[in-house]
Amino acid sequence: MKRRFGVIAAAAVLSAALAVPSYAGTWKYVNDQWKYQRGANKYAYNEWVEDNGKYYYLNNDGYVTTGWQQIDGQWYYMDATGAMQTGWLKDDSGKWYYLYPSGVMAVSTVIDGRTIGADGVWTPGEGAVEPADSPDLSTAQLVQNMSDISTKGYSILTSARTGGGDRWENAIRLKGKGSYVLCSTKGEYRLLYGSFGPSSQFDSGLMARVTVYGDNDQVLYTSGDIHYNEKVTYFGVDVSGQNQVRVEVSLSKDNDYDDPVILLNGLTLYK
């Protein structure tokens, strides 16, 4: 039962991140390519489809996509069948990438002790060991559901809108400079993953950052400046060996009046 709950939780996180439609449908082979039919003469276009636990993206012509795809400004990789990939990936060019649990390509972070550049590429140094596995997606643990968290300026909103126009349910809201959520990880987790963006209440005179701290205030990740209309940022960070993890908001531009309001979506730990 415990493993089944983990699988359900992971599926819920992925569905929330991808906004996958729930309608039933049927795969159809058309012009030597696959389409997803929802009804009589009605096919899926420009959207994600979930089928048997796998996720597929249908393009503008309604066909299943393969290889690298940029969708809503984010890069994803689909295998030869069109299934979205997660975890470490070595593509046909021989370059290494890391794909978050939602499929989004990681950039400018550290995963499993390996530094990933702004282009999403991990370049192995001399003698470096290539990745052998990835965090177990069946162990998804939403931070807000953990029993031993401490917070400041923290609340859960059943419905919230980012400055970029995205609507989130059950989002963590951090309000105020120095606001945070801190959880005890006891060295049991490998990856912290989620997305964030400014609330629609974020003032245009401010700029903020999100920083992830580990033990002894070690900085594990820090974002770029967040503006009032910033698009959603997907992030992940290696938390291996950390006994506690704190996600905190700071200001890089203060107007000495308004509080920054940052929304976190699907903030999740994986083993």
From TrEMBL:
The keyword rRNA processing does not apply. The keyword Repeat applies. Residues 1-24 form the signal peptide. Keywords: Repeat, Signal. Gene3D superfamilies: Cholin Binding (2.10.270.10), NPCBM/NEW2 domain (2.60.120.1060). Cell wall-binding repeats lie at residues 45-64, 65-84, 85-105. PROSITE patterns: CW. InterPro entries: Cell_wall/Cho-bd_repeat, Galactose-bd-like_sf, NPCBM_sf. This is Glucan-binding protein. It comes from Enterocloster alcoholdehydrogenati.
